[in-house]
Amino acid sequence: MHIDLAGKQAVVSGSTGGIGRAIAEGLARAGAAVVINGRGEERVTQALSEMRAAIPGAKLEGVAADLATIEGAGALFGRAPAADILVNNVGTAAPKPFEALEDADWLGLFQLNVMSGVRLTRHYLPAMVKKGWGRVVFISSESAVNIPKEMINYGMTKTAQLAISRGVAESVAGSGVTVNSVLPGPTRSEGIGRFLGAAAERAGVTQEVIEQQFLKTLRPTSLIGRFATTDEVANMVVYVCSEQASATTGAALRVDGGVVRFLA
Question: Does residue 154 have an active-site annotation?
Answer without folding.
Answer: yes
